[in-house]
Amino acid sequence: MIAKKLLALAAALAAGVLCFAQTEQSQVIENGGTGPWKSVVIGDKSLPTHTIYRPANLKAYVAENGKIPVLLYANGACVNNNLEMSRLLSEVASWGYIAIAIGPYMDMPDEAFYNQWKGVVRGWYPETKTVAIMGNGERLTPYTEAELAAQAAEREAAEKAAAAAAKKNKNKKPVVTVEPFRTYGRQLLEALDWLTDQNINEESEYYHLIDLDHVAAMGQSCGGAQVLSVAHDPRIKTCMIFNSGMGEMSMNGASKKSLAHLHTPMLYINGGKADVAFNNANGDWGRIADNIPVVKISTLDGHHGTYYEAHAGAYAVVARMWMNWQLKGKISDSALFMNDEYEKSFYPQWTFERKNW
Q1: At 292, which CATH number?
Q2: Which residue range forms the structural domain that includes residue 331?
Q3: How many domains does the chain have?
Q4: Is 216 inside a domain boundary?
Q5: Tens place of pLDDT per residue across the chain (357 aa)
Q6: Please, which residues have CB within 8 angstroms of residue 235's CB and are 6 or more apart in sequence?
């Protein structure tokens, strides 16, 4: 009897691990991107903790190009949604990649996305920009002094109201609040494990379509720390650290000690001195070992890059050209990172640095 129960349990566990992909929800963002393989965003029933970005006609892509490379993505602030980078991931997918991002699927129409970005863009406005143009064509300028004063007054009023309420209710039992769920770097590898299982499951729509030998990991801000916490995994072939770096910090399982475990070519891109991660990125640059090839790009776009622009702007171009070079072997795309004249012709205000190549 015990043996039968153990066999049943093993079968149940195996079924859970090898559960085939089941598209439950989907949407198209910005007409599926500018690439030749229009992308779709998917919520899969067998992977409810993540969101999938991929070409809509995945089998057609593979028939023409071979198995599709993988991008693993970790979110800014280590939050449990990938809305901030959804336009960039959709754009990258349209150039022939399957991206799996931490955070459950969420509907985000274009206008709702751009509306949520307004305050972020204006509040984190880099001094190097006079105007920011959103993906929907709207032009944004920094908050005026009057607007900043009004915001300060609103915060002050809220703080006074909270203090008064606390004084009034000082004898009442305090309300225990639960901190919102925060993500962890291991979720990047869990996504890769899921893809690995799908690739060998005959019932899965991803059966024998995934190029598990060509995997990139990318993280924004706190998500960059999550990438560094798992970058030692031999299945990861390159890492992209966006507006992030460890410096002297320890965060989400990573610290400057994590840099000693790197084994792949690394791309760092930051928003220049207006980026709160600028010094941390520079600190990592000085600590990465001499046997690790690295490119560091400093832009003038601040901590949130160009994610609010149409198809995520220049940062999306950088991401897909880096992967084209590192994962698909397209040497022509290496020019953006290795050729001074090419770099200056397209992004004359950016600073490019490279070492160990």
Answers
A1: 3.40.50.1820
A2: 19-109+182-355
A3: 1
A4: yes
A5: 545 444 444 444 444 445 788 888 999 999 999 999 999 999 999 999 999 999 999 999 999 999 999 999 999 999 999 999 999 999 999 999 999 999 999 998 888 899 989 999 998 888 888 899 999 999 999 999 999 999 999 999 999 998 888 888 876 665 555 555 589 999 999 999 999 999 999 999 999 999 999 999 999 999 999 999 999 999 999 999 999 999 999 988 999 999 999 999 999 999 999 999 999 999 999 999 999 999 999 999 999 999 999 999 999 999 999 999 999 999 999 999 999 999 999 999 999 999 999
A6: 192, 212, 215
pTM of the model: 0.90
Tell whether 167 is covered by a domain: no
